[in-house]
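Researcher: We plan to redesign the surface later, but first we want a full-length starting point. Tokens attached.
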């Protein structure tokens, strides 16, 4: 119960901060001394937990459970009181409504916290255990390898190279008809890793016209698989809407040589459901499958399946050393003997080796720290294969620092084989309240560090990185580790309150995640009649996953604050997905969702506009507001003495605001903005929208501006790292000095924004620029060399029909690794090829020149998340 207790307390700290802030600004009637007393008690319990969480005696387990229950009960008490206050105008008459009962509940729970503190203080040998706990915690948490997580080598396929060659040979044999090749082996042996290596190999890219990857898993849905292909842009949407996704896929594949990977097959049913969409073109098309079950492979293929074997001793040791030390052998002679003992105990299973390696890579590299782990791993020797693997994985989980455990266990909410967007995952961890605040970092920065740590420990898989290879874009979790998350969550009674909702209009969809509900699963929740919308039923529709996770729910306070959709007042994140709605007006009672941190409106039509009410300024805990077009209101009028009352102190992301007028009142209310997207239309023609005031946003890092017509008055803050200017009034190239002088600018996109035939950059500008993308301009001559963009890593030019050539000296920039050309004239491509040849002759074999056709449209988020895929021809 230590994890549930920790998660409960961390979540409660955010609620208490919200209550405290509201009370300080006369938005809530509470006794601040009482709140501060509870905060002090909660912080004591958190500190105690972080030191003693590894203790397993029965008495302290009971106290962990009491802490978790107290934390959740306190949140419930605050929710009941605050929502009651918000439903009536704040005044002297209404401020005492329910105050006595609220005060009494807080006194009772404050006393309960004191009782727990007293019980903890008399637990045997507290002082000695505290010192021992600090030492143990130091070795696990603080004794981190000197190699940062981001630099670790994650793609070594030790022992798999010979398998790759055999699979590729089998796939390219001269057999004209469609063939199936199954790869069989136990979980964790590397089937998916092998299939992915084959799938991405350059020879396979050149040999097959189309390559598609399908993750099947046990609980697969054909429509989900096919629609997933559509969403990834693999099948044209127009065809899919006309014919259905299966027929559209068939048309896509017909007459073309294709490779389909069907990963993680558990039954032949998935093949039976999908096979009719895979035409037999008689052109050596292939299906590659992975499965743990030999009988499935036998049923699907007349030939012998490809059986994955365990790694031999040498390959196992090599993989272990790559994982722990990023070297081919052990650099610490005193660790080799104990390390080889650990490797032998892993029995050649790659997943076990990498997970244990991830644990040891974060140790202090002392023999005394490794020996207890070796003893534990050796003790699993007599277990069955599946039990042995489970115990190895559990050992790694048990050795996680407490702050990482809630984030890891949360991975259970994602379906098997899901490809998880990292931006979304980090935000969910924050919204769920798992991240403990630090003075020097934002919650998102802390959460990103947690993700890197879990990837570094091989408990989460990094799947895709940005084109600079610096940031993870998507991740996943092995299904054996996901099973561990499920098992440990049940043991811990973890995740007791739903805080995230995906609102989807129409159809039978889950109340929480928005996915289709099969069999109309429901959970009976008693709901106060005064808060439930008239005429609605007290049963809520849940999907199978949410029905299991939240089966314990006893009650929710229901409101209808977003259009005609139902919410509950404990929500911290709402994602509204509505199609073909030209105007979405958020009602004024949206602030009843008083702990809401993320409000997103996606999948609205391109012409849709979201109108937010002025009550949005009464939600100081909001961190993210997103929509394609959102109209952001002016703050309510306040008296001079109340000038700080309407400040969205936590808001750091706001996109994309329509016709945003950056007045002093608005900018003063969003002082901590980091990502801002602005879009102007004809209504604002001739207005500068106070763009000169942008310089007042001293923490702004990412800015997207589209359609502005008065750029000569724009002023940027020095904190800016990413800038996108799209279809704005034209900058003269010589005027780019305003941008080039920004000291922290790393990423710049100029889209249909510049004019003039010549660009002669000034030396001493763009000193930290890493990414430069230029789209749609009349540039003819560009004179530049390595002194102008000394840190440039990625250059992209799109639709520059007048440009004569790329400056040849740009190739001398030592950091430049990619030049990407899209829809450029032949002379530009010729100059790029010449540049590449010159660099090759000088021994620079790291530079890539990619040529691609097609239209690519970037949003403010996609710009920094552009995957660098060689899906065009490269010179």
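Model: Full-length starting sequence:
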């Amino acid at each position: 119960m230590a994890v549930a207790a920790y998660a409960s307390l961390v979540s409660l700290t955010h609620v208490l901060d919200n209550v405290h802030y509201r009370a300080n600004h006369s938005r809530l009637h509470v006794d601040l001394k009482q709140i501060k007393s509870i905060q002090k008690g909660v912080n004591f319990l958190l500190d105690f937990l972080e030191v003693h969480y590894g203790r397993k005696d029965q008495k302290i387990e009971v106290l962990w459970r009491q802490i978790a229950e107290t934390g959740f009960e306190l949140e419930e008490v605050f929710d009941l009181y605050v929502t009651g206050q918000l439903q009536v105008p704040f005044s002297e008459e209404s401020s005492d409504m329910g105050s006595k009962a609220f005060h009494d509940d807080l006194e009772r729970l404050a006393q309960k916290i004191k009782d727990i503190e007293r019980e903890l203080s008399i637990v045997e040998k507290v002082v000695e255990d505290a010192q021992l706990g600090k030492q143990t915690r130091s070795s696990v948490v603080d004794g981190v390898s000197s190699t940062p997580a981001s630099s670790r080598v994650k793609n070594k396929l030790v022992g798999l190279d010979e398998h790759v060659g055999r699979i590729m040979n089998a796939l390219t044999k001269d057999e004209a008809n469609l063939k199936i090749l199954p790869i069989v082996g136990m979980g964790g042996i590397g089937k998916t890793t092998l299939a992915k290596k084959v799938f991405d190999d350059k020879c396979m890219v050149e040999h097959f016209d189309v390559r598609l990857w399908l993750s099947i898993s046990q609980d697969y849905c054909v429509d989900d698989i096919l629609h997933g292909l559509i969403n990834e842009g693999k099948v044209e949407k127009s065809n899919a809407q006309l014919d259905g996704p299966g027929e559209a896929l068939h048309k896509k594949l017909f007459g073309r040589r294709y490779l389909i990977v069907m990963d993680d097959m558990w039954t032949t049913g998935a093949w039976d459901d999908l096979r009719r969409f895979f035409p037999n073109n008689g052109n050596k098309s292939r299906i590659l499958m992975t499965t743990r079950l030999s009988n499935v492979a036998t049923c699907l293929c007349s030939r012998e399946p490809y059986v994955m074997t365990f790694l031999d001793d040498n390959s196992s040791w090599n993989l272990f050393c790559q994982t722990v030390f990023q070297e081919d052998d052990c650099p610490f002679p005193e660790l080799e003997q104990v390390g080889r003992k650990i490797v032998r105990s892993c029995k050649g299973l790659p997943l076990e080796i990498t997970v244990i390696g991830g644990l040891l890579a974060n140790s202090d590299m002392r023999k005394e720290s490794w020996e207890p782990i070796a003893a534990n791993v050796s003790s699993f020797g007599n277990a069955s294969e599946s039990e042995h693997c489970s115990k190895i994985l559990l050992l790694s989980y048990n050795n996680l620092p407490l702050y990482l455990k809630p984030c890891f266990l949360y991975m259970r909410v994602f379906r098997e084989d899901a490809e998880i967007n990292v931006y979304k995952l980090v935000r969910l961890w924050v919204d769920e309240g798992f991240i403990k605040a630090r003075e020097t970092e934002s919650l998102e920065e802390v959460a990103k560090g947690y993700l890197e740590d879990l990837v570094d420990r091989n408990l989460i898989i990094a799947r895709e990185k940005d084109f600079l290879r610096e940031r993870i874009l998507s991740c996943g979790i092995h299904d054996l580790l996901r099973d561990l998350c499920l098992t440990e969550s049940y043991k811990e009674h973890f995740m007791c309150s739903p805080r995230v909702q995906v609102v989807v209009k129409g159809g039978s969809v889950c109340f929480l995640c928005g996915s289709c509900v099969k069999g109309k699963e429901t959970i009976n929740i008693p709901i106060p009649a005064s808060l439930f919308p008239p005429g609605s039923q007290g049963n809520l529709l849940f999907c199978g996953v949410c029905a299991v996770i939240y089966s314990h729910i006893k009650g929710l306070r229901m409101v209808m604050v977003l259009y005609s959709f139902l919410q509950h007042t404990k929500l911290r994140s709402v994602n509204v997905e509505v199609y073909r709605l030209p105007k979405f007006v958020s009602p004024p009672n949206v602030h009843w969702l008083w702990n809401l941190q993320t409000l997103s409106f996606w999948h609205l039509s391109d012409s849709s506009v979201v109108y937010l009410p002025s009550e949005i300024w009464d939600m100081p805990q909001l961190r993210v507001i997103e929509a394609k077009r959102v109209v952001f209101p002016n703050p309510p009028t306040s008296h001079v003495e109340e000038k700080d009352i309407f400040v969205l102190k936590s808001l750091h992301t706001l996109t994309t605001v329509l016709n945003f007028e950056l007045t002093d009142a608005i900018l003063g209310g969003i002082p901590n903005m980091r990502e801002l997207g602005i879009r102007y239309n004809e209504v604002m023609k001739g207005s500068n929208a106070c763009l000169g005031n942008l310089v007042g946003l001293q923490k702004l890092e990412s800015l997207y501006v589209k359609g502005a017509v008065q750029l000569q008055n724009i002023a940027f803050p020095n904190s800016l790292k990413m800038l996108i200017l799209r279809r704005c009034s034209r900058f003269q190239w010589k005027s780019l000095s305003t941008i080039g002088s920004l000291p922290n600018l790393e990423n710049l996109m100029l889209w249909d924004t510049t004019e003039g035939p010549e660009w002669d950059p000034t030396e001493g500008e763009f000193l930290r620029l890493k990414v430069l993308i230029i789209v749609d301009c009349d540039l003819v001559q560009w004179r530049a060399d390595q002194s102008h963009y000394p840190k440039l890593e990625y250059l992209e030019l799109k639709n520059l029909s007048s440009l004569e050539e790329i400056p040849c000296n740009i190739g001398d920039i030592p950091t430049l690794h990619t030049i990407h050309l899209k829809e450029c004239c032949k002379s530009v491509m010729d100059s790029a090829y010449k540049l590449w040849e010159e660099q090759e002759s000088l021994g620079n074999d790291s530079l890539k020149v990619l040529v691609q056709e097609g239209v690519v449209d970037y949003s403010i988020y996609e710009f920094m998340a552009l995957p660098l895929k060689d899906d065009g021809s490269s010179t």
